[in-house]
């Protein structure tokens, strides 16, 4: 095994789960998140020399997965479904075993955030990147990252408190 493949193997083992959780938190579908993450890691392997030198290779993988999702979504929205029931059948509620990956209430709250705020939360919290690395991965200014993170945390806190209050009332 050469040095490059050993580096990539160690990178993959270390970042596979955090990258998957970050993508899952953003797309909210376990199977789609698995496919997107696998595709992103395959692309990372194909461009390993470039990715290895990136300041945040895990962020590169997550960004690649999310860009792949956007590309898929853009192609998909131009398609005309043959059967409306088939379109609804592709969407599913998360199974109970998904709760071990990310708490369902948190996932529901994350889905309510605007896309950019969700991306900032994923990179800052799930991948534990600093503000500068997050800004570089998203192509925005560091102040924008801080602003989005502040708004996202405020919205998540309010949503989760509301969810807790509803659960207490129903008990």
TrEMBL record:
Residues 104-156 form the RNA polymerase sigma factor 70 region 4 type domain. Residues 11-78 form the RNA polymerase sigma-70 region domain. It comes from the Bacteria. Keywords: DNA-binding, Sigma factor, Transcription, Transcription regulation. Belongs to the sigma-70 factor family. ECF subfamily. This is SigE family RNA polymerase sigma factor. It comes from Catenulispora pinistramenti.
């Amino acid at each position: 095994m050469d040095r490059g493949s050993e580096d990539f193997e160690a990178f993959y083992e270390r970042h596979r789960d955090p990258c998957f959780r970050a993508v899952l938190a953003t797309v909210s579908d376990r199977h789609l998140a698995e496919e997107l993450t696998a595709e992103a890691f395959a692309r990372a392997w194909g461009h390993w020399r470039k990715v290895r030198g990136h300041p945040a290779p895990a962020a590169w993988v997550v960004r690649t997965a999310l860009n792949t999702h956007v590309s898929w979504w853009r192609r998909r929205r131009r398609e005309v479904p043959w059967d409306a029931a088939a379109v609804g059948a592709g969407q599913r509620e998360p199974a109970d075993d998904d709760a071990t990956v990310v708490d369902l209430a948190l996932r529901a709250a994350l889905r309510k955030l605007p896309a950019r705020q969700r991306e900032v939360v994923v990179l800052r919290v799930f991948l534990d990147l600093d503000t500068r690395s997050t800004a570089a991965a998203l192509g925005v200014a560091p102040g924008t990252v801080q602003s989005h993170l502040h708004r996202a945390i405020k919205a998540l806190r309010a949503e989760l408190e509301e969810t807790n209050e509803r659960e207490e009332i129903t008990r």
